[in-house]
Specification:
Helix content is about 65%, strand content about 0%. The protein folds into two domains: about 1-80, no CATH class; about 80-114. It is mostly helical and about 110 residues long.
């Protein structure tokens, strides 16, 4: 793929072919017409000299808008806290920790006495 500084039209075409979803719809039209319709979004009208650039810029702009909306919905969702984050579970775990420390201390004391 050429860099955008060498041939921006070719670079835009390659980016669209690699990253843009294309589909051929099942219609009663001839196969060649369906194929042309599948690739029509790659080069929108009217100017042919910069068609692939405009197609890529339109597509990437649309994707950026949709990604921002999805990010906003994701960050704005409400989640229930994990059961491990509740005060009751934290208190129980702390009590278990203290019991284990006491058991370990008692075991160390019993070893010294023998």
């Amino acid at each position: 793929m050429p860099s955008a500084t060498v041939c921006s039209e070719s670079a835009a075409l390659y980016k669209q072919l690699l990253l843009r979803p294309l589909a051929v719809t099942a219609k009663e039209e001839p196969a060649d017409v369906q194929l042309v319709e599948a690739f029509a979004d790659l080069c929108p009208l009217p100017d042919g000299a910069t068609a692939f650039n405009r197609g890529w810029l339109q597509f990437s702009s649309q994707q950026a808008t949709e990604a921002a909306a999805a990010r906003h919905r994701f960050l704005g969702r409400y989640e229930w806290p994990s059961v491990w984050e509740t005060a009751e579970v934290q208190q129980t775990l702390l009590e278990m920790h203290f019991e284990e420390q006491k058991r370990a201390a008692d075991f160390q004391e019993s070893k010294v006495v023998l």
